[in-house]
Each structure stands twice: as structure tokens, then as C-alpha cells.
Specification:
single chain; Jelly Rolls; about 25% helix
């Protein structure tokens, strides 16, 4: 039997490393100085969830990181242009840009509930200090909505254990969940929406 197949629906997670150890340490130091200043001023990022800090554009975005996000976005867009004619047609009249970025700091035991960023094209997360502080899980929306048999292919999702200095990017419509940290170390990442 000769079988051919075409991928009808796909959601990829792209992973690369960005920044030297020195650049990552400088970025981390800048973030911690910023956080400590907010603590001194009695400002909590997220009063609804003590221990979860989130703020838009907290520090000047390092040029090496901005360039890394932009380069990855352009490379991924080129990949998708070759395999998705509809995306290619739309992409011809658009440019990629970082539309927003923010800082997340989570203390021990905190998670980030399942969510997506469906109004955007891509979402990216740069892991400044995250090794061993909780995995990120990506879900097939059909499984989230209980619209699929759990024994079907590609329903269980994809689990990734982020490492310091990694940049992950994926289509923004993909639901994802950040699992609780089980060690006493702050999980620190910068998140970007791409339009």
C-alpha cells in the first residue's frame, strides 16, 4: 500500500539560544535591580497573585535580544511562507514587529494558568532564569475544549523544560500552561507578542 500524507493542521514550537552568558547575567541583574526598587517602593506587579510579578517593558530591551527575537520571527515566517500559501499571501503585505513585551517573575510554587494570545501572530518567551523552575506545556485546542478523543494522535500536547538563554516562539493561538516551580528559585522570563 502506497500512502502519502499532507499535514492539515500543525503548531510548531521553535527553540534557539540567544545571548552570551555575560549578556544573560547583565539582563538578569538589571531585572533584579528593577524588582528590588519596586519592593522598596511597596509596588506589587500582580496584587491578585502574591509572588507573581508582571510588568510591561520594565527595562530597556537589550539590542542583542531584540535582534534575536526579530531574526527568529523572520526565519519562522519564511519557513511558513514555503508551506502555507495563505500565510505567504498575507505575509507579503506585512512586516514582523514586536507589538508588546513584558517581564514575568514567579516565586516558588506559582504557575501560569492555561491561556493563549490568539490576537497576535506569534508569541515568544526568552528565559533569563528558568532552568528547573517549571516546564511549559503546549496543548492542542481540541483537547482543551474536550472535543477530541484522547487516544487520537497529537492530542496529548508537548512539554518543554526551558533552560536559561533559550528563546521559544510558537503560533500565538496555541494554548499553553506554565507548571508550578518546585524549587526555591525565581522563574524569570521576558515574553513578546509579534504582529
Amino acid at each position: 500500500m502506497n500512502i502519502t500524507y499532507k499535514t492539515a493542521i500543525r503548531a510548531d514550537v521553535f527553540i534557539t539560544r540567544v545571548g552570551t552568558p555575560e549578556q544573560i547575567k547583565t539582563c538578569l541583574d538589571d531585572i533584579l535591580v528593577y524588582r528590588n526598587k519596586l519592593i522598596e517602593d511597596s509596588i506589587q506587579f500582580d496584587e491578585a497573585t502574591p509572588g507573581h510579578w508582571r510588568v510591561d517593558s520594565p527595562i530597556p530591551l537589550p539590542s542583542w535580544l531584540k535582534e534575536g527575537v526579530e531574526d527568529m520571527t523572520n526565519n519562522i515566517s519564511n519557513i511558513y511562507c514555503k508551506i502555507d500559501p495563505t500565510f505567504a499571501d498575507i505575509y507579503k503585505s506585512n512586516t514582523n514587529k514586536i507589538s508588546n513585551w513584558w517581564l514575568n517573575i514567579n516565586e516558588l510554587g506559582l504557575d501560569v494558568p492555561i491561556h493563549s494570545h490568539s490576537k497576535h501572530k506569534f508569541i515568544a518567551c526568552y528565559y533569563v532564569q528558568t532552568t528547573n523552575t517549571g516546564d511549559i506545556k503546549f496543548f492542542n485546542p481540541a483537547n482543551v475544549l474536550k472535543e477530541a478523543n484522547g487516544k487520537s494522535p497529537f492530542i496529548s500536547g508537548y512539554l518543554h523544560s526551558p533552560k536559561d538563554g533559550e528563546l521559544l516562539m510558537w503560533p500565538a493561538w496555541v494554548p499553553h500552561y506554565v507548571m508550578p516551580s518546585t524549587i526555591d528559585k525565581k522563574r524569570i522570563c521576558l515574553t513578546f507578542t509579534i504582529d
